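2024-03-11 09:14:02 INFO receiving multi-entity request
2024-03-11 09:14:02 INFO entity count = two
2024-03-11 09:14:03 INFO echoing inputs for audit
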Amino acid sequence: MQYSQKVLDHFMHPHNVGKMEDPDATATEGSPSCGDQVTVYLKVDEEKKVIKDISFLSYGCASNIATASIITDLAKGKSLEEAKKITWRDAMDALDGLPPVKVHCSVLAADTLQTAISNYEIAHGLKEVPDFSKETILEELKKIIYPKVGEDIVSLKMVKYVGFNDGEVLIDLNMMSFDSWRDNVAEEIHEHLEKYPEVKKIEINFP
Amino acid sequence: MRPGEIYLDNCVSSPMAPEVLEAMKPYFSERFWFPGSFVSTGESTNEALSGFQDIVAKSLGAKSSEIHFTSGGTMANNIAIKGIAMAAKRGHVICSVVDYPDLLTNAAWLEKQGFEVSYLSANDKAVIDLKELEAEIRPDTVLFMTTAVNHVVGSIQPLKEIHEILAKAPNKIFFHVDAGQAYGKMPLDVDEYGIDTMAISAHKIHGPQGIGALYQRKGTKLAQLIHGVKRVDNLQTGGLSIALIAGFAKAVELTFDDLDANLKQLRELSDYLYEGLKAKIPHIELNGAEGEGRAPHNVNISIDYIEGEAITMMMDMQGITVATGSACASQGLKANYVLMAIGKNHVQSHGSMKFTLNRYNTKEQLDFTIDRLAGITEELRKRSPLYNALKNQEK
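2024-03-11 09:21:47 INFO inference complete, emitting structure
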């Protein structure tokens, strides 16, 4: 497996790394048990709604550090509206690509940035706390990467059915029993959905 | 530093001794002959081969005729495990959850063939529980297999006690040992431990890659797995490089001529490394057994609050090769199964570093390694939200 030179540069010399004192918003995504965790800190110009400063902390591998570094570069100086459009694909492209098994790092970095922006907007009355619905589940599933090819499971049409009823999530996944990534994808789904208090139970079915 | 200049991943492969290369050279050129009868070329190879068998046999307290050369440790494990099982046709097999993948993948295959397999648990030092072994033995148990020195944390299994338990069983239970990490790292006498079959390889003791051996106790029946013309060995039929065998024998001589001194040197180096790491890096812990309970070449530590792939990559940029049990560095994105099985949590597994030493490593190399790892740890901890949270708590 090879990393691009840009990944190595950002890993060895990350930009905007370090804890920020008195941030206007912050978010932490991932968990140590999954091997990666990112925290993003924001300082926002309240009048212009522009990200004045941004920094991150990362517990994770080289690509985790590199994707967090590049996401802060992409967001710095942008308006909140512009920054909200930054996706994991932008981060990955800016790093000249990632090995397929490492694409999930890019998702985590972008996700953390978006949660930090969302936390800012909620705290400043710019938006309501979104209701949890089937849409929320679908949005989360779009963040789950099939490590074999480095694409998300929704784009790959691996999600056949999503149901949500009374706290219970039901997902049908089109992954064969001999697919060695099945446990990994199922674990990722649990990790992404269990953070919502509305989710009481998750059932994943395979063919 | 050049890439791999300080190589501390010798459990995978160790540098070849210069004497080994010299010993192999004639067999690559003028003495390229396979064994044979009634012709001087073949006869001279017979003689040489017999001498190489003697050398390997002596290192194990075995008879020359009990040594089969194979294309490596994995081949030896397969010939023995499948050979015993297929000869028995059916039955029950015992191994443990911390065994080397050679054993676990063979066990999984045997299950598919209709064998029942019991997987013993391991304690926090990766050592199996003898009472559990006793309890798992059944009238139809045909094979017990173990990894003499654990490939991740270096713990040594109680081979003598295992043998005593197996010997008490009313039925014959074959005792197979994967000694990939143990050979040359501890005395291994096949009679003392009652071993029936054992796999060893050359490249972990400064021999060439691509050659190993299987010890097969006289009378141990193995089903023939590899069919073909017998050139060098009757179990692994077909051609085997005589040059590699010559190199293997030389490596065995170099290791076993003064095994005690070799072991003492490795133990001193690994103690030196561990003490240095403890002194220079806060928040680390040893994984596996301490002192005599672990092989002398293995130091496995967990560095809290940071992740192993990032550490190994930064070490690599300094010319130092080490291994990690981090999920991020594994092909399947899974935390190391041995560390998880012995009760380590994900963070300890992700932050684990495995150093395995060879006899050419020097204290100067280890000083450099400790110094660089201390710096890398400090840098990565500055970036870590887990370490920053700890520092906040301490304030």
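2024-03-11 09:21:48 INFO post-check: Chain A has two domains: 5-123, 134-205.
2024-03-11 09:21:48 INFO post-check: Residues 103-123 of chain A form the longest helix (21 residues).
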